[in-house]
Amino acid sequence: MIRNTPRLRGLIQSSLSKVGARCLTAQAATALRESEPMFRYEEYADIDWNNLGFGLTRTDYMYTAKCKENESFQQGQLRDYGNVELSPAAGVLNYGQGLFEGTKAYRGENGRVFLFRPDQNAIRMQMGAERMCMRSPSVQQFVDAVKQTAFANKRWIPPPGKGSLYIRPLLIGTGPILGLSPSPEYTFLVYASPVGNYFKEGTAPLNLYVNDEFHRATRGGAGGVKSITNYAPVLQAISKAKAQGFSDVIYLDSVHKKYVEEASSCNMFLVKGNVISTPATVGTILEGITRKSIIDIARDSGYKVEERLVTVDELMEADEVFTTGTAVSIAAVGSITYNGQRKEYKTGDGLVSKDLYKTLVGIQLGKIEDKHNWVVQLD
Ligand code: COI
Fold this sequence. Notes:
Layout: H1 6-17, H2 26-34, E1 61-68, E2 77-80, H3 91-95, E3 98-100, E4 103-107, E5 113-116, H4 118-131, H5 139-152, E6 164-173, E7 185-195, E8 206-211, H6 235-243, E9 248-252, E10 260-263, E11 267-272, E12 275-279, H7 289-300, E13 304-308, H8 312-316, E14 320-325, E15 329-338, E16 341-344, H9 352-364, E17 375-377
The chain binds 2-OXO-4-methylpentanoic acid.
2-OXO-4-methylpentanoic acid binds at residues 102, 265, 325-328.
């Protein structure tokens, strides 16, 4: 495999690390051009861009930075993508001290590359780290790491219209610890993979199943943060639902078994008349970045949006239902099955979700005015 040089990595890193830097310095760009045979910088990787699902494709580089107990994170490094070595007593392996994030790099027309609100992922990771007693990188370090990872893996960003580069930041307790207490060391790691549609249905409407037996979170728990420990417990419910042909599972609140929380991989929205409603975030629901962007886009477009308790009965009586998430983007729901009843929703043209999707994607690809300053252009 052709490798880049440490000097080149250093230049790219220091160039992209400058506060607010949105492009490489001239020196780094020249070094990159001169090093072309050394650095994997062809425009596109040689893969089948027409058949990307949401599977892992091995890319070239990942970013890592470490932090010892009571210290700040060291400056991180890009390194070749590969396995990480862990102590068997690492906090993440023994006590689940780990958080993840998901954000995407999009290739617009004319080769421009855009990130969407990476600062919001950084802030969410910081809030999660506080809840899980972990140290976290600064917002600036987080955003720089995402930029560096996207830039170094640029050839893996799909052509316009074929998908995006999914960027997965992780914060894990890597220090050894036997008793139940915070890990003495943390690692911040960012890797990436080109992806297409999250669901195997592609862009076809989803068929969801309401499971009132398993709960994703409880009040006072950690359902509102992106802890790795929130995801394994839903695998059984998802597996059962998928075996019956459903796309994903919707969870209800654990106390009343009546209020809609979220699906395993995304937030829920319903449309009734001209009002859009979504479950309020009260600590049991992940505060999705796509969720809050859609609330703003919908309000900007003149829709009334309510964040409140939403009952499963209301969901079953809605005109339209859709889901949002970074991996999912916005997906229309075709049916929901609850208590043995299957409700079919409006699909096709004229959906509110289609209208919102067009605006969201237009902003993410630099085609629609970004009046909230959500988009970060990489080069
Ligand atoms: C995302 O949307 O980025 C997520 O982290 C959801 C995950 C289940 C793929």
